[in-house]
Amino acid sequence: LAREARDIVRTTCAYCGVGCGVLASSDGQGGATVAGDPAHPANFGRLCSKGSALGETLGLEGRLLAPVIGGRPAGWDEALDHVANRFAAIAAAHGPDAIAFYVSGQLLTEDYYVANKLLKGFIGSRHLDTNSRLCMASSVAGHRRAFGSDTVPGTYEDLELADLVVLVGSNLAWCHPVLFQRIAAAREARPDMRVVVVDPRRTATCDIADLHLPLAAGSDVALFNGLLLHLHDTGVVDRRFVDRHTVGLDAALAAARAATPDVAAVARWCGLPAADVARLYAWVAQSERTVTVYSQGVNQSSAGTDKVNAIINTHLLTGRIGRPGMGPFSVTGQPNAMGGREVGALANQLAAHMDYDDPVAIDRVRRFWQAPHLATGAGHKAIDLFRAIGTGEIKAVWVMATNPAVSMPDAGQVVRALQACDFVVVSDFVRDTDTARLAHVLLPAAAWGEKDGTVTNSERRISRQRPLRPAPGLARPDWWALSQIGRRLGYAEAFDYHGPADIFREHARLSAFENDGARAFDIGAVADIPASLYDGLEPFQWPWRAGESGLQQRLFGDGSFHTPDRRGRFVAVTPRPPCHAATEAFPLVLNTGRYRDQWHTMTRTGRTPRLSAHRPVPLLAVHPDDAARFGLADDGLAHIESRWGAAVMRVQTTAEQRPGTVFAPMHWTGVLSAAGRVNEVVNPQADPISGQPELKATPVRVSAV
Ligand code: SF4
Q: Which of 23, 172, 178 to mutate to test ligand 1, by most ligand atoms within 8 A of the CB atom?
C-alpha cells in the first residue's frame, strides 16, 4: 500500500467498531487534517462527526507527558523499576493471582498481545480482563455456543445486500454512524429494502425504519423465540441445512413453545401490539436476504448470551448465514474489541481463540511462549475483578486506556475498591481522569496519531493504525511499557520486541501454531511479514491461512462450523426478565447508552467544542407522563437514585421514551462535570454466562431537585 503523498498517512479511526479508514496529515501546529479513506472497505471515504473531528483532538492540553509516582514526576527507568519491584514483591508474598490487568478495546492488538502474554504467561496471573467485557462478551459467548468459535459470519456488504435489516438493541445512527449511512444509502437505491428497529427507545435510527418495535426491556428472547416458532410452523425452514449442518432444533423449539406458543403470548411478553409482532414475522418469513444486526441492547443484559442465541437460532433454521445479504451480525462498540478477543484478552480466554477448557491448548500456548508460569484457569471477569480488588484478594492492578471509575456499573464500588487497593498503575494519554486520581503510578501512553499497530473491526477486518507524529514528551506505546516490565521481571528474551511488527508476527504465528483449521482465528499468511510490508499492510479479513488467497469474506455458508462435529448448535433458551424488576420504591427502569458525538468518558471527544455542542450536558430522557407523575419539569434538575447510588441530571421530557423507563448517557465524569457519573446508579448484575453487566435495566426513582 503506497502512501499517496509523503505527509498523508492512511490510518484508522480511534472510536467505534466500524473501523473506518482515515487519511490524516499533521498540520504542523499540533493538529491534523482528516478525511475518510476512499479505498478502505469499511467506509469508502465516509466519516461520521466523531471521526471527522479527530484532528481537533490532538492538542497537548491535559496530556500526561511523563511518568508520575505518588504525585511527583519521574523518569521511565524509575517508574518501571518501581512497578516491576512492586509486582514482584506482591507476587512473592501473595501469589501471582494477587495481580490483575484491566485493559481496553482502545488498545491496539500489539499492546493487547503483550499485556496478555506478560500477565497470563510470565507473571502467571489469571486476572486479565478488558472493558470489552461491557461491550460484547455476550456475543462472544453466544457465538461460541452456536458456532464453536467467536466468529462474526458476515461482512458489512451484507447490510447493503439484504432485503430486510433487523436492528436489535442498536442505535446504529449514533453509535455506528457510517454503517448506518451505508444502510440508508442502500435503502435509497432499493426502495423495497426494509429496515426494522427493535429498541425500547425511539432513536435516530428509527428515521429510516419501516417498523419500530419498542419492546419491554429484556424481552428479546421472547421475540426471537416466537419468530423461530413462526418460521418453523409456517414452513420457512432450510431442511437440508438443518439436517446436515445443525443439532438441537427440537429442544430449541420446545423451549420456545413453552413460553411463547403464539404471537399473542409474544406480544404480552414484549409489551408490543400483536399486529406489529406479526408484521415483523411475516417480513422475515418473506425475506431470504435477512440480516439481524445486534449490539449493546442485546449484549448488556443478564440474559445477553441467551438473546444472542435466540437470534442465531432463527438464522440456523433458515440457513440464512454466511451468504450474501444474510446472517446474524454483532457490531462491536470499540475500535479494537475484536483484536482483544483475538489475542485472548478476556479473563476466560487464553490466547489466539484458545481457551482454558482445552488442556491441549494450554500446553500449546505454554510451549509457544516458553512461558514459565502460564495461568491454567479462567480469571475474574470485570465485575468480579473489581470486587476482588475491594476485598483485598487482588492487591495490585494495572489499568490501561480506560476509566473504570466512570464506565463500570456500581461505579462507587469501583472507586472504593481502587482507593483500598495496595498498588494501582494507570496508563493513559491524559493526566486527569477519575481513575487516574486513584493511581499510585501514572504511565504516559501514546495516543491516536502517535500509535502504531493494528485493529480489527466488526467484520473481522484487520487494518493498520499508523502514526502521524512522534509521541510528545515521554509518552510511549503501551506495548513498550509492558515489554520493559517483562524484561525487568527477568524475561528479556520473551519481551525483546523492537517494534509493533515483531509483536504482530508473533501473534500471527501463534494463531497458526498447530492449527489444523479447527481454530477459527488464523492469520498464518502474514506470520513472516517483514517490517517493511507490515508498515504497508492492506486491510484484510481473517481467517487468512498460510497458502490461501485471503479473499474469503463470509463464513459458515457451506455449513461447516467450528464445533468438534462441524455442526452449528441451536441453543434452547427461555425468556426471563431483567434481574432487578421495578418496584414501588424504585418504579422506573433506567437505560444507559451513548450520545452521537461523545465517546466513552470523553477523554478525547470532550476536547473539541464542536462535538460537545451536540449535547453540552447529560440529559435524563423521561416520558411526559412519567415527568408529570414524579413532578419533573422539562429542563429542571432530577435526582436519580437506585439501590446502588445516585446522580443528578437535567430533565428532557420526550415522547420517544417508553413510559416507565428513563435514559441517561454514560459519558460524563466526576472530573468533567458536577452532574456526576450515571454508572454510580447502575446495577452490577451480570449475565451468568458471559459476565456482561446489565447496563440497560436498573430500577430507579426520580425526584425534582
Ligand atoms: Fe470512526 Fe465509527 Fe465514525 Fe467510522 S463510524 S468515523 S469508525 S466513529
A: 178
Residue 564 pLDDT exceeds 80: yes
CB 461 within 8 A of CB 541: yes
* Residues facing 569 on adjacent strands: 247
The response to whether residue 222 sits with its C-beta less than 6 Å from ligand 1 reads no
The three three-digit cell numbers of residue 645, written as one number = 447510588
Q: Give the pLDDT score at 3.
A: 38
Q: Residue ranges per domain, the chain?
A: 9-57, 68-128+336-456+478-492, 135-331, 588-704
- Under DSSP, the state recorded for 56 is G
What b/e string do you get for 191-223 counting C-beta neighbours within 10 Å, with b at 16 or more?
Answer: eebbbbbbbbbbbbbbebbeebbbbbbbbbbbb
Average pLDDT value for residue range 212-219: 95
CATH code linked to domain 588-704: 2.40.40.20
Cα(691) to ligand 1 centroid in Å equals: 27
Q: What is the C-alpha separation between 481 and 67, in angstroms, rounded?
A: 11
Residue 323 grid coordinates: 451468504
Pocket test for ligand 1, best of 15, 34, 338 (most atoms within 8 A of CB): 15
Bridge partners of 27, per DSSP, are none
Residue minimizing CA distance to atom 4 of ligand 1: 20
Q: Look at residue 1 and tell me whether its pLDDT is greater than 50.
A: no
Ligand 1 pocket, 178 CB below 6 A?
Answer: yes
For 413-443, how does the pLDDT look when each residue is reduced to its tens digit (9 = 90+)?
Answer: 999 999 999 999 999 999 999 999 999 999 9
Classify domain 68-128+336-456+478-492 at the CATH topology level: Rossmann fold (3.40.50)
Q: pTM of the predicted model, to two decimals?
A: 0.96
Cα separation, 526 vs 517, in Å, equals: 16
Which residue shows C-alpha cell 476485598? 391
The answer to whether the CB of 51 is under 6 A from ligand 1 is yes
Over pLDDT 90: what percentage of the chain? Answer: 90
Write out pLDDT tens, residues 237-272.
999 999 999 999 999 999 999 999 999 999 999 999
Q: Is 36 in the pocket of ligand 1 (CB under 6 A)?
A: no
9-57: CATH superfamily = ADC-like domains (2.20.25.90)
ipTM over the 0.95 cut-off: yes
- CB 108, CB 138: distance < 8 Å: no
How long is the chain?
705
Nearest-atom number in ligand 1 for the CA of 48 is: 3
The answer regarding whether domain 135-331 maps to CATH 3.10.690.10 reads: no
Q: How confident is the model at residue 671 (pLDDT cuts 50, 70, 90)?
A: low
Could you tell me if the CB of 442 is within 6 A of ligand 1?
Answer: no
Atom 2, ligand 1: residue with shortest CA distance: 16
Is the CB of 177 within 6 Å of ligand 1? yes
Using the mean position of ligand 1's atoms as its centre, give its distance from the Cα of residue 108 in Å. 16
Strand order in the sheet with 72-73: 72-73, 68-69, 441-444, 423-428, 396-400, 99-103, 128-130
- Interval 510-550: pLDDT, tens: 999 999 988 999 999 999 999 999 999 999 999 999 998 87
Q: Which residues of 344-363 are buried (b: 16+ CB within 10 A; e: fewer)?
A: bbbbbbbbbbbbbeeeebbe
- Residue 632 Cβ < 6 Å to ligand 1: no
**For the purposes of burial, counting CB atoms within 10 Å of the CB of 571, is it exposed (0-12), middle (13-18) or buried (19 or more)?**
buried
Mutate to test the pocket of ligand 1, among 11, 12, 20, 159 (most ligand atoms within 8 A of CB): 20
More confident residue, 26 or 154: 154
- State in Å: Cα 127 to ligand 1 middle: 31
Q: Which three cell numbers stand for residue 614?
A: 451536540
